[in-house]
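Lab notebook, bench 4. Still working through the backlog of constructs that have no structural model yet. Next entry is a single chain of 174 residues. Request: give me the structure tokens for it.
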Amino acid sequence: ADLREANLRKANLSEADLRGADLRGANLSKANLSEVDLRGVDLVKADLREANLRKANLSGANFLEANLSGANLSKANLREATLKEANLSKANLVEGDLVDADLSYADLRRANLVKANLSGANLYKVFMINSDLTNAIIEEESLSQSILCRTKMVDGTMSRCYQREANLGKVNLS
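Model written out:
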């Protein structure tokens, strides 16, 4: 279905099967997309501010430059999703599955990533200030060139502010 730039603000699409939909530039702010199937869907530059995507299947979806600020992505399947340059500030990604997702250049300020699985995720040059990675599964090298400031790390310690090679010193990320 061609839903490019559609206004679906506050729409209730819970449990819908939207595979194959083209949602580029669509307004889905404050929409209920809980448990929706959006596998492989194109959401480039879509507005998903404060949308509810709890337990949604978003594997392989393309969120390039999408606005997911304040979105609820708890327990969502984001395996192999493209979130490059996406705004995920204040997003709830608790227990999210982000295995092999591309989050390069993403804005993760104040994002909640508690118990999220970021194995194999590309976190190159992500921006994390006041974020929470407590008990997340993450590989230290994936934070290359990232900006981390006052972020709660996997082991519960707080990061100082880092730029460039994300010098994490003795912080345990496993």
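Notes after review: Residues 166-174 have pLDDT under 50 and may be disordered. The longest strand covers residues 127-129. Flag for follow-up if needed.
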